[in-house]
Design a protein that fits this description.
Largest sheet: 5 strands, mixed
Helix content: 40-55%
Strand order of the largest sheet: 7-6-5-8-9
Number of strands: 16
Distance between the termini: 30 Å
CATH superfamily of the largest domain: eRF1 domain 2
Bound molecules: zinc ion
Strand content: 25-35%
CATH architecture of the largest domain: 2-Layer Sandwich
CATH topology of the largest domain: Nucleotidyltransferase, domain 5
Structural class: alpha+beta
Order of helices and strands: HEHHEEEHEEEHEHHEHEHEEEEHEHE
Shape: globular
């Protein structure tokens, strides 16, 4: 995720409840046809109507703003490269629009603080990547940013003209072929050097290759070892496809790969927790770690949801408290623990990963954390 989006997210996570409820709206704008666009439009319309009729209703001016922004986004492709857009309004005058790269479900949530959970998959895509589509005569490089495919550049190699002069002779054809191949080699080498320069200048950690198998294979031979190590994988791609389409495919590939890596990380977490190392698993120990800002990386199954409470005075998260905070005895307000833990960890500079499914983690209430230091 881009540093500015990351910073904005941490700020949103720190916002205390304001004078008005916060409306958080996530609209998936990766529509491939008008039906999908219509579906998003109806989703927004229905939820706005419900919100305007609710007992604990948000302020009209907040809903009006959401409605205007939402309609603009749906009608105009305001962020054509993004997969979706998050809107926040309410609190003490909060107004925010953030385009996002990751795909997420449409959501419309009214709560005391910004609803940030759908954000988390994109927080995990912090590493910017470079997508390289290559064929025998050209290469297209696209940067992947948190808001979608970013800058792109096309490198075009001039292959010497296919003049037919003397082409009837085997020797000439042979020589001609060698010349072409030598130039192709130069093209691949020059592309590799351009990629190396970009990787170094922008500190890119991952490269995704795309193109026909043969072109990709030849190109790989031209990558230096450090560069080759950054190749996260290869996705299909054809010359007629737009760079944005190929880049989106690459982003999805990286997201799937991250999921696998997360599963391995959760295995290690559970192992460390069992040995009382630098990790905890289960709701009670994780809450305790969150409360003392000791969480470096929170792992939570996406379906996690548990009622709980936040102390109005000391801020401690806890299981539903009948009236009083279990630590200081002050009044509490109800809070969903999953969202509350995610917000607290992000606000303290920690990381969060949402896990689709993991048997071992599910057995430990679906939540656990790597700690900054041993418990
Ligand atoms: Zn308290």
């Amino acid at each position: 995720m881009a540093a500015d989006v990351q910073a904005r997210l941490a700020e949103l996570a720190k916002l205390p409840p304001g004078s008005r409820p916060v409306v958080s709206v996530y609209l998936n704008t990766r529509w491939t046809d008008e039906n999908q666009r219509e579906r998003v439009r109806i989703f927004l319309k229905n939820h706005l109507r419900e919100a305007r009729a609710a007992v604990e209703r948000p302020a009209d001016e907040d809903l009006d703003w959401i409605e205007a922004q939402g309609q603009r986004i749906i009608a105009q492709d305001a962020f054509p490269d993004a997969s979706g857009v998050a809107l926040f309004a309410g609190g003490d005058g909060l107004r925010d629009v953030l385009p996002l790269r990751a795909a997420f479900e449409d959501a419309f949530v009214v709560s005391s603080t910004p609803f940030l959970r759908p954000f988390v998959p994109s927080a995990e895509e912090a590493v910017s990547a470079l997508v390289v589509f290559v064929d025998g005569v050209s290469a297209r490089l696209v940067a992947l940013t948190s808001t979608g495919p970013g800058d792109e550049v096309t490198l075009e190699h001039e292959v010497p003209g296919r003049h037919r002069t003397g082409g009837w002779a085997a020797l000439a054809q042979n020589r001609y072929q060698r010349h072409i191949e030598a130039h192709r080699d130069q093209h691949y080498q020059a592309t590799a050097e351009a990629v190396a320069a970009l990787v170094e200048r922008h500190g890119l950690e991952r490269i995704v290759l795309s193109g026909e198998a043969r072109a990709v294979a030849i190109f790989r031979e031209h990558l230096s070892t450090p560069l080759a190590r950054r190749v996260a994988g290869v996705v299909s791609g054809a010359r007629y496809e737009s760079p944005a389409v190929i880049a989106t495919r690459a982003a999805e590939f990286l997201a799937r790969r991250d999921e696998h890596e997360d599963a391995g990380a959760v295995d290690r977490l559970l192992d460390a927790a069992a040995k009382r190392g630098r990790a905890v698993a289960g709701v009670a120990p994780t809450l305790e770690a969150v409360n003392r800002n000791a969480v470096q990386h929170l792992y939570m199954v996406r379906a996690f949801e548990q009622p709980g409470a936040v102390c109005e005075r000391c801020g401690a998260l806890q299981p539903p408290a009948p009236g009083r905070c279990q630590f200081c005895g002050a009044a509490t307000r109800t809070a969903e623990l999953g969202e509350a833990m995610v917000g607290r960890v992000l606000a303290s500079g920690g990381e969060v990963s949402m896990i689709e499914r993991h048997g071992g983690l599910a057995d430990r209430d679906g939540v656990g954390a790597i700690l900054r230091y041993a418990a």
